[in-house]
Amino acid sequence: MLKKNKFFKFVSIVSVITVLVFVAACSNQGASSSDDDTIKIGVLASLTGPLEAYGKQTIQGFELGLDYATDGTREVAGKKIVFIQEDTETKTDVAVKKATKLLEEDNVDFLVGSSSSGDTLAVLPLAEEYKKIMVVEPAAADSITGEHFNPYIFRTGRNSSQDAVAGAAAIASEGVRIATLAQDNTYGRDGIAAFIEAAEALGAEIVTEVYANPDSTDFTPNIQQVISEDPEYLFIVWSGSNAPWKQLKDMKVEEQGVKISTAVQDIASLKTMDALVGMEGYSIYYYTLPDNEVNDWLVEEHKKRFNGEVPDLFTAGGMSAAISIVEALKKTEGNVDADKLIETMEGMEFDTPKGTMKFRADDHQALQSLYAIVLENQDGVDHPIPVLIRELDMFETEPPIRNK
After folding, report:
1. Among 133, 154, 194, 201, which is disulfide-ready with 161 (CB 3.0 to 4.6 Å)?
2. What is the pLDDT of residues 307-362, one digit of tens each?
3. Residue 7 above 80 pLDDT?
4. Fold agreement (38-158+290-368, 161-283+385-392)
């Protein structure tokens, strides 16, 4: 009898364990199924710090892009799309920490970002380590798709060389003497190096390169160095709010025979550029410049959602990044396997607020249009506006291939 009781106890324990294992298995299957039905995107952006405006525009544009590309459903191939935003604070160590959190804790299928080239360069190796596609927007340093390129990186943002080709086309020709001024950081130095390459190819002479502390508010010694070289043009690469435009006017640079040329970036920058009215340069994006249906939708929808405000430079960029991901997922029918996505995205064309973009197979840089412009005043507008001279199409602005 004792043996029989022990036997029944044993059978009961085994039965309980079997049930528990079965329940756990079902539970795990349910969790896996739920994950399989959701595509997660982690967006890294500077939501505080000196590039806060860039980060917030990117997030707004990304949301708009998801809605546009999915007709408002935020679903693709029967799967729900969710995105998780993280603030890099424009600090490389924070960017790495937040990206690691997105990859390990949130199990994202894609990374997007970041506002800073430094932050982005710090995160690139993680995309390769975790085998996840990272869509770079809006960081512009050439080295992202150049010496630090890895096959998991695709960039919808333009790079410094694309800027440089457009900038050089505006002012460089045989024998023209050009000085350059930029922030002493990755973005500034990459931008100037690319510009010099493009300008010298057109026969221009670079008389001096001047780099300023990115946190500086007094550019007197930098501007004096430029003036001392007696250039015909001063080409400037700059991002952020502490731009030197007012000081250039106060020091009467143009009155001394030096013409200024630079990129027209976001609206906040334009509000500081009164001193540059009449300047011929180039624009990366301004909401009145592109003529296409995607941009029309963006402008109208942005006004509806944000109290009549128009979209800005990095709004269009964030939207382009979202569209590229959705279009790739449509082609893979929701498959997020990185190898499949790489195969799909190489050479892929997709429509954006800036017109058609194409991921170049060689380095995954999106070829895209920029705009030759002249700055003019307009009644009722509190900043100079870029007026289109002509669109520079993706073939005119195609940059050199710089990866290994």
Report:
1. 194
2. 999 999 999 999 999 999 999 999 999 999 999 999 999 999 999 999 999 999 99
3. no
4. yes
- Take residue 179 and report the two structure tokens written for it: 């000085």
How many CA within 13 A on the CB side of residue 201? Answer: 12
Nearest residue to 182 via CA among 168, 197, 173, 195: 195
- Domain 161-283+385-392: give its CATH architecture: 3-Layer(aba) Sandwich (3.40)
The pLDDT value recorded for residue 169 is 84
Domain map (residue ranges) of the chain? 38-158+290-368, 161-283+385-392
Distance CA 221, CA 368 (A): 37
Are 54 and 11 in contact by the 8 Å Cβ rule? The answer is: no
Read off the pLDDT band of 241 (50, 70, 90): low
Strands 349-352 and 355-359: antiparallel
Q: Give the C-alpha separation, 237 to 116, whole Å.
A: 15
Euclidean distance between CA atoms 79 and 69, whole angstroms: 14
Q: To the nearest whole percent, how much of the chain has pLDDT over 70?
A: 91
> Which homologous superfamily does the CATH classification assign to the domain defined by 38-158+290-368?
Response regulator (3.40.50.2300)
Instruction: State the amino acid at position 388 in one-letter form.
Output: L
The SS3 assignment for 76 reads strand
Helix and strand counts by DSSP (H, E) for the chain: 12, 16
Under 8 Å between Cβ of 250 and 262: no
**3-state secondary structure (DSSP) of residue 348:** coil
Rounded to the nearest integer, the mean pLDDT of the chain is 90
CA 64 – CA 355 distance, rounded (Å): 16
Burial class for 297, CB neighbours closer than 10 Å (0-12, 13-18, 19+): middle
pLDDT at 204: 97
